[in-house]
UniProtKB/TrEMBL annotation:
<protein>
    <submittedName>
        <fullName>DUF59 domain-containing protein</fullName>
    </submittedName>
</protein>
<dbReference type="Pfam" id="PF01883">
    <property type="entry name" value="FeS_assembly_P"/>
</dbReference>
<dbReference type="InterPro" id="IPR052339">
    <property type="entry name" value="Fe-S_Maturation_MIP18"/>
</dbReference>
<dbReference type="InterPro" id="IPR034904">
    <property type="entry name" value="FSCA_dom_sf"/>
</dbReference>
<feature type="domain" description="MIP18 family-like">
    <location>
        <begin position="10"/>
        <end position="79"/>
    </location>
</feature>
<dbReference type="InterPro" id="IPR002744">
    <property type="entry name" value="MIP18-like"/>
</dbReference>
Length: 103
């Protein structure tokens, strides 16, 4: 399986993870900035949160790590949290904006 296929599977998994305070998955919220494969089975997930003081930060990061690492295609995952650039609602998908009433 190639990186593109694996990336699609990773995205589908990320779409099952929700910020507990917002009824939209973290991928459509625009919290995932980058998926970078070091090797075909080693992945870095660069992501942010909706706010630097998010009380659920540890839980969300751990869930991303556990769910992605559970994929048979992924041997190792590194989740990197950044606030540069800061998240804003313009990073959300059209579906997320519609779900949250921004459209």
């Amino acid at each position: 399986m190639g990186k593109k296929e694996t990336e699609s599977i990773v995205v589908e998994v990320l779409k099952t993870i929700y910020d507990p305070e917002i009824p939209v998955n973290i991928y459509d919220l625009g919290l995932i900035y980058e998926l970078d494969f070091y090797e075909e089975d080693e992945l870095k997930v660069l992501m942010t949160l909706t706010a630097p003081n998010c009380p659920m930060a540890d839980q969300i990061l751990e869930e991303v790590n556990e769910r992605v690492k559970a994929l048979p295609q992924i041997e190792d995952v590194t989740v990197v949290l950044t606030f540069d650039p800061p998240w804003d609602k313009d990073m959300m998908s059209e579906e997320a904006k519609l779900e949250l009433g921004f459209l």
